[in-house]
From TrEMBL:
Position of the signal peptide: 1-15
Stated name of the protein: (African queen) hypothetical protein
Keyword Isomerase: no
Organism of derivation: Danaus chrysippus
Keyword Signal appears in the UniProt entry: yes
Coiled coil: none
Cited Pfam families: OS-D (PF03392)
């Protein structure tokens, strides 16, 4: 479940360089994780329950692959950004995280990978 949140927000907090979204390399993750209302609005976007910013739309597109690959196309820096977002989502918005995880990881097969990812990159 943690992996799903992480990977979901990986898309929010980071971008894959090969997709020409290098502009998200310096995404202000601290602002996002410190503002519960903002974090909640991004998660609502990812769930299809709220409006999306242009960044949110980009991140939303990347979530499924990021969850499956454990952010395999992310730079190391982007993995740290994603890890922070996932950890904040899990800690501050556990119900929303559960919904997001259920959407992208319905059978829980990525739970262990997400947990390990957050432990490694979520600090």
């Amino acid at each position: 479940m943690k992996l799903l949140v992480f990977l979901t927000l990986v898309a929010v907090a980071t971008a894959r360089p090969e997709d020409s979204y290098e502009k998200y390399e310096n995404f202000d993750v601290e602002e996002l994780v410190s503002n519960v209302r903002l974090l909640k609005s991004y998660i609502a976007c990812f769930l299809g329950e709220g409006k999306c910013t242009p960044e949110g739309n980009d991140f939303k597109k990347w979530i499924p692959e990021s969850v499956q690959s454990n952010c395999g196309k992310c730079s190391d820096h982007q993995k740290h950004l994603v890890g922070k977002v996932i950890k904040a989502s899990m800690d501050k918005l556990p119900e929303e995280w559960k919904k997001l995880n259920a959407l992208h990881n319905p059978d829980g097969k990525y739970d262990e990978g997400v947990k390990n990812f957050v432990e490694k990159y979520g600090q």
